[in-house]
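Project standup — Tuesday

K.O.: blocked on the structure for the chain from last sprint. Re-posting the sequence here as requested.
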Amino acid sequence: MSTFARDIYLEAWGRGWAPDPALTVSEWADQNRILSPEVSPEPGPWRTDRVPYLREIQDCCSVMNPARRIVFMKASRIGATEGINNAIGYAIQHSPGPILFAQPTKDDARDESKTRLAPMIDASDALRDLVSDPRDRDSGNTTLLKEFPGGILRMVGANSKNAFRRVSARYVFLDEVDAYPADVQGEGDPVLLAEKRAGNFPRRKIVITSTPTLKHFSRIEKAWLASDQRRYFVPCPFCGHFDWMRWENIRFDEKDPSSARLSCTSCLALIEERFKPMMLHRGEWRSTAESSGRTIGFHLSALYSPLGWKSWWDCISEFLEAKHEPQKLKVWVNTVLGETWEERADAVDAEGLAARLEKYAAEVPAGVGILVASVDVQGDRLEAQVKGYGAGEESWLIAYHQEHGDPGGDAVWLEMDKFLKQEFTHESGRKLKISCTTVDSGGHHTEKVYAFCRARLERRVFAIRGGNELGKPLVPARASSRNRYHAKLFTLCVDSGKETVLSRLIVGSPGPGYMHLPDFVDQEYLEQLTAEKAIRKWSKNRGMARVWVKIRERNEALDLEVYCLAALYILGQPVVRSLPERAAALNVPLDAEAGEPAPEKAPQRRRGGWINSWRS
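H.V.: unblocked you, prediction finished:
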């Protein structure tokens, strides 16, 4: 062996035995990380002082830190993913080893790689020469696979059963775990599968982060509850008392969200948000529970967002907009407070609904801006209902109709068509037609449904059926036409629709999401509307999941309610307004008797007619 070759060998051998440098992730990021203008609102050198609450979380990923499993339950947009990227950059340069980075889906992983990791590598002098240019032939660097001296980075989607096979990793980063499937195609829990990939590494690092979702179902909350439950305590600028920020201590005037103040739990002083940078800088993480010591857990809400990011004013404004609509409030609790949402009820009482029946001032009340309908097919009849929707998807049941006869013949369908073609009188005097109709094709007489819908496509009459997937939007992005009539068919996530209907039945006062029920409905209708309840049930493919079960046999009213909501969403989830509101938005006067714009203003009508101006 030549002297030159021997020197190279000995140098490499020495580097291999050298201990990892005594450098923390935060120190590495402050020295080497450059935020790209492509993805960051504050491009330029990374400064941990800008997000001081991330310092300890990041440093737990440092090689000299004894932590092995780090859990971070957090609000949206507070820098958690960038903290993971800092830890990845640190590992690539200073303590290399195999890295596994999992996102909910492969598309998410690809997007993360392209929009965040690749710009980070390109912008950093410390990383650029270590990770080969993916444009070079045989570079070992692709979108989802990046090689570097001493290790390899794999980006995977947690929904793939092959994602964790034949993989070993010293570093395991699991992002947004509450969006992972309960079971990966029969292989088991993807989080457990991923954690086992690091089992042979004594100095492993497993990082689990997510915005939480539903209580009792949230992976991140379960992991956090099993930890020492650290919270970020900050000092009061007036008395120096340390406490963590919580929503119940925010004081504000609903008419003026900018009045937001944080009440000190000790001296009761009202703290303005301008003190936040000082408070964050002097803050410290403190454990609030005992644990086995195997898991370190952190929790952070958006109340801690640095100045210039999400302000207390923003948090309050979003709360005021969402507080009367459970579905929006759920999102706010998850993404702003970083807490799980607990359903107020899994079933609705028919007796309670009977107490709020009302007499409308007209066939179609003033708040209605659009009509939709739905049809359910039974063995000996067709059942239909017409719903009116207004601002904030506040809704009114307008008509409920049964047409008895054999759905296998033509007569009952012709009679139902007459019902769907009729016009309804608005409180303004305007005549309204049904804008969209959905017809259930998943049970009886499917071919008849397809034929009926295909012949009425110009009136937006569509076939629907229920699907088996959970957690999807009620209406898919595209319809199928793969039937011999080429009728448009939408496969609905019925569970999502029932969740929405349930949340709206418990809205207590008129406003966004409230469901108005007329005094002409009977007890049977109310019993059908409340005929199902949600229970938590284990299944092999879904794990623990909310499933809907009947508590009585007939449930047509509930099905029709879901189908009407689907009809509204098929139209594009429009911003629905009442007729007077639409006239005002168009800057046209409303004729008091006919509900029409004045003739001289006709040129201001939107394309498709004034009655269709609800489209956003």
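K.O.: great, moving the ticket to review. The chain has 18 helices and 26 strands. Residues 357 and 388 are 16 Å apart (CA to CA).
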